[in-house]
Amino acid sequence: MHAHVNVLARKDTHAFEELMEGQLAKVYRLCCWLVKDKTAAEDITQEVFIQAYKHLDSFRGESQIETWLYRIAVNESKRYLRSWSFRKLRYFSQLKSFEHTDVESEVMSKAEANRLERHVYELPFRYRQLIVLYYYQELSAETIAEILGMKTGAVYTGLHRAREQLKKRLIAEEGGEWTLIKG
After folding, report:
1. How far is CA 28 from the centre of its chain?
2. pLDDT higher at 150 or 100
């Protein structure tokens, strides 16, 4: 069990605020990638931390608390995407790029990064979540398997299929090059 779990289990407000400050940007970024809408991602991020606070006593400390938060974020994002309001009242706005400070953005030109980002957004959710968690959140396949409740082999298989879909999309678009680098 991790040392700070006991403090959080007592619902120590200060400890929870520190956790939020440390994880807020990562959880928000993950939600942005998964739901493709910054406003919805803000709401989902808030819901993630509300749910985490409500259920702190159920966190057993068998995984890292960050992994637990990511699992909540993925589940809340799925719930949002299945919701009536998303399906029936969704507006179609231009996808806006948000800043990346990871290796991909530094290595690839801005145009390449935007092109790849657009294609990642177009992937089915099951593949998009794998690509985002692995490449943009820089999580290991083992951690992703824990977050999504799947076997590590299934994560690798899903990543392979997601990369294949990205490759097909990029090649179809002007015979583009295909490169996806793990940082």
Report:
1. 8
2. 150
Q: CATH no. for residue 8? A: 1.10.1740.10
Sequence-separated (6 or more) residues with CB below 8 Å from residue 138: 102, 182, 183
Evaluate if pTM is beyond 0.85: no
Neighbouring C-alpha atoms within 13 Å toward the C-beta of 166: 23
CA distance 17 to 55: 15
Which pair of tokens denotes residue 44?
A: 């989902």
Quote the CA–CA distance of 87 and 103 in Å, as a whole number: 34
Domain range for 160: 103-172
Residues 6+ apart with CB under 8 A from 182: 134, 135, 138
From 66, 89, 112, the end of a domain falls on: 89
